[in-house]
């Protein structure tokens, strides 16, 4: 039986000396240093991670160069799938990142600005390596396409850019369907409202996307423990759960999460 | 000489990885090196004969893969006849069969596979998420050098029709695919995996020298490295 994937997310920035370093944040701000990305990937691999997501949060040319080098070093040491995101804007960026050893690339803003990039990437490299990432924000007004019930109120989810600081007016659920039809092989759903809160994933958001598309969905933002993973798998139908801080700060091990899920009948790779 | 710097290790066998212009070859190369192979990535068919084994990697579409593999068709057929080990990974495995529905779905008519293992590749039925992406369990159906392994006790109750000693039975491997192989002869099936339908995860020809995995051993952690190690050891024994 296909198992649910537990994915640690590693945000890579440059430290003061220009070396790659992992930071983790609260609501996309206030970053805290947590270690060397390659060492971290090795530890997570031993701990039973099913996959990794590496995000380049530097958004700079230097950062991009360092990121590709980090990806190569990780890919040479760790034999599980690796998704790389952050700053991927062109077909050449996709190619370069895959060449460095990534199995998938995660594209966010560039795909919203130029949806043809999804088709182009899927045609050239295969749908399996094109992950479309969204930073969703709840909106309680009349401008959306798809509405969900949140705390007794009706809301829709807007795609944002620049770490949630700017709205686009694009409905996440509608965009997810479009990205899929353009050839996206997986959807990576972040929530600006839940990010860093540890209050659980945005279930209505994740469920709305899972109900709309048939490609796999990675739920992200808000995981505070094993029970949040359980909820997003069983109530929202996510295929993978991503978490950062609970693993980085050793609040829970990947095995803790998997044991919890296994005891409750959720298939995981033990 | 291997160029890897991560794991200086004794080299057991020389392996040519066929570069037909698709996908990320780096992981498969590093995985094979870690397993003890001296890997040459090559698009020159004249290098095949001297290698201890040949790997057909693969990510992408069947028709494009076969088109790109066209120049190697003859050299691969000769290698198969000579009894050289040939290992297809993912699309590379699907190419070992006779044909695929994928080419027809893409409106490209009949595209011939390598036909080392008679059969065709078909698409998963509606109702399953496609691609089948993630970690799924291996059920070993018969003995083959590729599936030998340390007995981890993962499979608690050995099946009557299963293998006897230690093997990768019950272990998990990483899959990404929308089509799966249907060999004409059930004997070609070495291991299966369940995704709504029980499909072949590992296939092999009658002689045992041509085989392939639908999953990516180079992305399947320790289990994958065990399988790559089995392949390299098999190459060394030939």
TrEMBL record, chain A:
Pathway in which the depicted protein is active: Amino-acid biosynthesis; L-histidine biosynthesis; L-histidine from 5-phospho-alpha-D-ribose 1-diphosphate: step 5/9
EC numbers: 4.3.2.10
One Gene Ontology biological process: L-histidine biosynthetic process
Keyword Cytoplasm appears in the UniProt entry: yes
Enzyme class: lyase
Record lineage: Archaea, Methanobacteriati, Methanobacteriota, Stenosarchaea group, Halobacteria
Protein name listed in UniProt: Imidazole glycerol phosphate synthase subunit HisF
Position of the signal peptide: none
Gene it is expressed from: hisF
Keyword check for Ion transport: no
Automatic annotation (TrEMBL), chain B:
Active-site residues, as the UniProt record annotates them: 90 (nucleophile), 216, 218
CDD domains named among the record's database cross-references: GATase1_IGP_Synthase (cd01748)
Record pathway: Amino-acid biosynthesis; L-histidine biosynthesis; L-histidine from 5-phospho-alpha-D-ribose 1-diphosphate: step 5/9
One Gene Ontology term, aspect cellular component: cytoplasm
BP GO terms, sorted: L-histidine biosynthetic process
PROSITE patterns tied to this protein: GATASE_TYPE_1
Catalyzed chemical reaction(s): L-glutamine + H2O = L-glutamate + NH4(+); 5-[(5-phospho-1-deoxy-D-ribulos-1-ylimino)methylamino]-1-(5-phospho-beta-D-ribosyl)imidazole-4-carboxamide + L-glutamine = D-erythro-1-(imidazol-4-yl)glycerol 3-phosphate + 5-amino-1-(5-phospho-beta-D-ribosyl)imidazole-4-carboxamide + L-glutamate + H(+)
Signal peptide: none
EC number of the protein: 4.3.2.10, 3.5.1.2
Main location group: cytoplasm
Domain Glutamine amidotransferase: 16-232
Pfam families the record matches: GATase (PF00117)
Entries under NCBIfam families matching the protein: IMP_synth_hisH (TIGR01855)
UniProt subunit comment: Heterodimer of HisH and HisF.
Protein name as annotated: Imidazole glycerol phosphate synthase subunit HisH
Protein species of origin: Halogeometricum limi
Phylogenetic placement of the source organism: Archaea, Methanobacteriati, Methanobacteriota, Stenosarchaea group, Halobacteria
Gene name linked to the record: hisH
């Amino acid at each position: 039986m296909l198992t649910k994937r537990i994915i640690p997310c590693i945000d890579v920035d440059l430290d003061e000396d220009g070396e790659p370093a992992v930071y983790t944040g609260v609501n996309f701000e206030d970053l805290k240093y947590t270690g060397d990305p390659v060492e971290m990937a090795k530890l997570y691999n031993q701990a039973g991670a099913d996959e990794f997501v590496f995000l380049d949060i530097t958004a700079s040319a230097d950062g991009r160069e360092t990121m590709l080098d980090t990806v190569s070093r990780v890919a040479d040491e760790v034999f599980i799938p690796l998704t790389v995101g952050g700053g991927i804007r062109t077909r050449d960026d996709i190619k370069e990142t895959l060449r460095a050893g990534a199995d998938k690339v995660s594209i966010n803003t560039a795909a919203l600005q130029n949806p043809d990039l999804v088709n182009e990437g899927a045609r050239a490299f295969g749908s399996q390596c094109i992950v479309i990432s969204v930073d969703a924000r709840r909106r309680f007004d009349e401008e959306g396409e798809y509405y969900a019930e949140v705390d007794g109120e009706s809301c829709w989810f807007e795609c944002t850019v620049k770490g949630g600081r700017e709205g686009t007016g694009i409905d996440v659920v509608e965009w997810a369907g479009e990205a899929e039809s353009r050839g996206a092989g997986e959807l990576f759903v972040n929530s600006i409202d839940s990010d860093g809160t540890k209050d659980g994933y945005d279930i209505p958001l994740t469920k709305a996307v899972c109900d709309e598309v048939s490609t796999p969905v990675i739920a992200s933002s808000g995981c505070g423990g094993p029970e949040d993973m359980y909820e997003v798998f069983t109530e929202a139908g996510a295929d993978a759960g991503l978490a950062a801080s609970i693993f980085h700060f050793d609040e829970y091990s990947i095995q803790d999460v998997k044991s919890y899920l296994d005891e409750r009948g959720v298939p995981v790779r033990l | 000489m291997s160029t890897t710097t991560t794991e200086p290790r004794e080299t057991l066998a020389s392996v040519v990885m066929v570069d037909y212009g698709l996908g990320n070859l780096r992981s498969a190369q590093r995985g094979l090196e870690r397993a003890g192979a001296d890997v040459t990535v090559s698009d020159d068919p004249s290098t095949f004969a001297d290698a201890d084994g040949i790997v057909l990697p693969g990510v992408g579409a069947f028709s494009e893969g076969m088109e790109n593999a066209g120049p190697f068709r003859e050299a691969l057929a000769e290698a198969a006849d000579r009894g050289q080990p040939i290992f297809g990974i993912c699309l590379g495995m699907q190419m070992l069969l006779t044909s695929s529905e994928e080419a027809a779905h893409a409106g490209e008519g009949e595209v011939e596979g390598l036909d080392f293992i008679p059969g065709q590749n078909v698409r998963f039925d509606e109702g399953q998420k496609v691609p089948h992406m993630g970690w799924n369990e291996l059920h070993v159906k018969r003995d083959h050098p590729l599936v030998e392994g340390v007995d981890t006790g993962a499979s608690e109750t050995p099946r009557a029709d299963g293998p006897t000693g230690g093997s990768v039975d019950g272990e998990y491997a990483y899959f990404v695919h929308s089509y799966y192989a249907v060999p004409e002869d059930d004997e070609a099936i070495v291991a299966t995996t369940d995704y709504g339908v029980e499909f072949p995860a590992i296939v092999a020809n009658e002689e045992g020298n041509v085989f392939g995995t639908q999953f990516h051993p180079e992305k399947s952690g320790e289990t994958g490295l065990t399988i790559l190690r089995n392949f390299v050891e098999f190459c060394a024994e030939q």
